[in-house]
Design brief:
It contains six helices and eleven strands. It has 235 residues and is of the alpha/beta class. The chain has one domain: 4-Layer Sandwich (Purple Acid Phosphatase, chain A, domain 2). Strand 2 (15-20), helix 1 (27-43) and strand 3 form a beta-alpha-beta unit. The model has no long low-confidence stretch (mean pLDDT 94).
Length: 235
């Protein structure tokens, strides 16, 4: 049973969005959340549901990418997967072969991600792509940077105040914290984001933060948005 509270915006009748915060490679938590979503849909069917993942790195990045690259993980539920800053660093290191990007990625969890693909420690960057299935690389390449549903704008990190949503830079969508987090004005939509972990989901008038630090021992959080209300599933 989901406990609902007032949301900062209203979805059209018949629509529902399940938005999963930063997965951070927590595969078993993700599977548990998917089971909860499937159960909720079975108990409360709706005409136009959507599942949105804010992916991002973690200890079982390979398992998460393998699961999500295989198609919608909840049967018959349309799914959108969004790119995080760690996926962008990974692609820059593996595909663009950018030495600076490779070092940056290694400084930000890249080593753990490589181990999840069974890349031997100490392997030179030139060999990394050979350990990663092409399907996984194509999945990462095709991740969306953002997605809008009615009055909600879904993105990994956030947006820059004062810039129209359709003109946001890739860097801000993937990396921004300030001045986004402290801004109290109107972004042009309610921004649903991760990237900045908090012990509990943050619901504000202009944004909803759903990264609850699963990779650091917190739960994986899924916001459930429908009509003018919001609830949460957590695993």
């Amino acid at each position: 049973m989901i406990t609902f509270d007032a949301a900062p915006a209203r979805l059209p009748a018949g629509e529902r969005v399940y938005a999963v915060g930063d997965v951070h490679g927590c595969l078993e938590h993700l599977k548990d959340v998917h089971a909860m979503i499937a159960g909720d849909l079975a108990e409360r069917p709706i005409g136009a549901p959507l599942l949105v993942h804010l992916v991002d790195r973690g200890p079982d990045s390979a398992g998460v990418v393998d699961l999500l690259s295989g198609g919608p993980p909840v049967a018959d539920l349309p799914t959108v997967n969004l790119m995080g800053n760690h996926e962008h660093m990974m692609l820059s290191a593996l595909v663009a072969r950018n030495p600076h990007a490779g070092g940056l990625w290694m400084d930000n969890g890249g080593g753990a991600a490589l181990l999840s693909w069974n890349v031997p420690r100490g392997s030179p960057p030139s060999l990394w792509p050979g350990y990663i299935p092409a399907r996984h690389l194509l999945f990462l390449r095709d991740l969306k940077r953002c997605h809008r549903v009615g009055p909600y704008f879904f993105v990994h990190a956030g947006v820059r105040p004062g810039v129209p949503l359709d003109r946001q830079s890739r860097h801000d969508l993937l990396w921004i914290r300030e001045p986004f987090l402290s801004f109290a004005g109107n972004f042009g939509a309610v921004v649903v984001h991760g990237h900045t972990p908090r012990p509990e989901p943050e619901v504000r008038r202009n944004r909803i933060g759903i990264d609850t630090a699963a990779v650091m021992g917190g739960p994986l959080t899924c916001a459930v948005l429908e009509d003018d209300r919001i609830g949460f599933l957590r695993a």
